[in-house]
Amino acid sequence: MSVQPSSSMETQAPGNYSPPKQDGRSAQDQAIENWLPINASRNAKWWYSAFHNVTAMVGAGVLGLPYAMSELGWGAGVTVLVLSWIITLYTLWQMVEMHEMVPGRRFDRYHELGQYAFGEKLGLWIVVPQQLIVEVGVNIVYMVTGGNSLKKFHDTVCEDCKKIKLTYFIMIFASVHFVLSQLPNFNSISGVSLAAAVMSLSYSTIAWGASVDKGKMENVDYDLRATTTPGKVFGFLGALGTVAFAYAGHNVVLEIQATIPSTPEKPSKKPMWRGVVVAYIVVAVCYFPVSLVGYWAFGNAVDDDILITLSKPKWLIALANLMVVIHVIGSYQIYAMPVFDMIETVLVKRLRFPPGLTLRLIARTVYVAFTMFVAITFPFFDGLLSFFGGFAFAPTTYFLPCIMWLAIYKPKRFSLSWFTNWICIVLGVLLMVLAPIGGLRNIIVKANTYKFYQ
């Protein structure tokens, strides 16, 4: 599958370098393309890429990393964290490079790149189900995270108040998204995303800073959390999924890059990569201190959300939880936007619904209500992290970009590129197979004592 230049490249408007019209696309079809959320705006700057990627990646996952360390132990935990950071940065670079591998064309969506690599039908079936599982799964987990953090904020600020069910806090969190989901495209949520990125860095700093201030617990225990052999094995597998969940930005990276203007002289991959590097520096500053300091301070007594373990100083922990709420508001929208794009594409192109405000109002409201309902029904935070992290994040983050790179560029066998990609593929497949086992067991164990809609 060779990369051929396109003769229509010169016809593109400067700064809005887009796929050429194909198959005699009508003006109406072109108008629909320009109406869809991903294609609607292409005037983003490189720093949009930075904070969109930070918002997409640093979220619920970072708060569960100390807990993952307690399931992995020092040696395995540090190794998995560092390897994941390196591998995912490499695969993210590959996706940024592949966005415009064909001159005159942009792969604005993950499934479009998959279709180019694997064929029109096969690529769609390989990518879309996994991407939807990731994005819908993240939105469900963020509903749980937002509700939990709101509850923690309320209980910390008002200890003597009447206890309110988690269900109601999830509903309060969801009510914000019924409004924000009506924003049309990525650039329209840039302010929300920037605030979310700042919050992620802030509450991560509070999490490890408060842990340092509290110091190491008396009789801190660094043995694995579980005491039985099956428990240790399943816990280890589940922790792998939690780490995989923490590196999730790949599922929206092409859609983010689609918002950046591009010309043959100034391709979007340069500003996009600059933003990705800044984002990954922020990721390292957030992930490693929280993981290592949180585990150092509390050992295997740490909760699945580090902020729940911390209780003093009250005002700081309350502030941190409020920051988490603001952050996951932005993160929810970042992951929801590609889903909105898919839903609206099907409704308008396949089912021939007229594009407009009414369609968006109904479709997006139904989607937010769906994620809220599932979150209320299954609020198992750590189990959800592990299950979704392994089942869907591993393919789309760790090895699908490598498979597409091998299929498209065909590097020489046994070359450095060939070896590197195959190592990532093998590790990613192992992660995909093993991690969901631990997460599913965790969900089943907690479901035995859980009362629905508590």
From TrEMBL:
Q: What parts of the sequence cross the membrane?
A: 46-65, 72-93, 122-145, 166-183, 189-210, 276-298, 318-340, 361-381, 387-409, 421-444
The region called Disordered is annotated at 1-25
What this protein is called in its record is Amino acid transporter transmembrane domain-containing protein
Q: In which broad location class does this protein mainly occur, judging by the first location in its UniProt entry?
A: membrane
GO CC annotations, alphabetized: plasma membrane
Gene Ontology molecular function? amino acid transmembrane transporter activity
Q: Which residues form a coiled coil?
A: none
What top-level branch of life does the organism fall under?
Eukaryota
Keyword rRNA-binding: yes or no? no
The Swiss-Prot or TrEMBL record describes its family as follows: Belongs to the amino acid/polyamine transporter 2 family. Amino acid/auxin permease (AAAP) (TC 2.A.18.2) subfamily.
Q: Where is the Amino acid transporter transmembrane domain?
A: 43-438
Query: What's in the keyword line of the UniProt record?
Result: Amino-acid transport, Cell membrane, Membrane, Transmembrane, Transmembrane helix, Transport
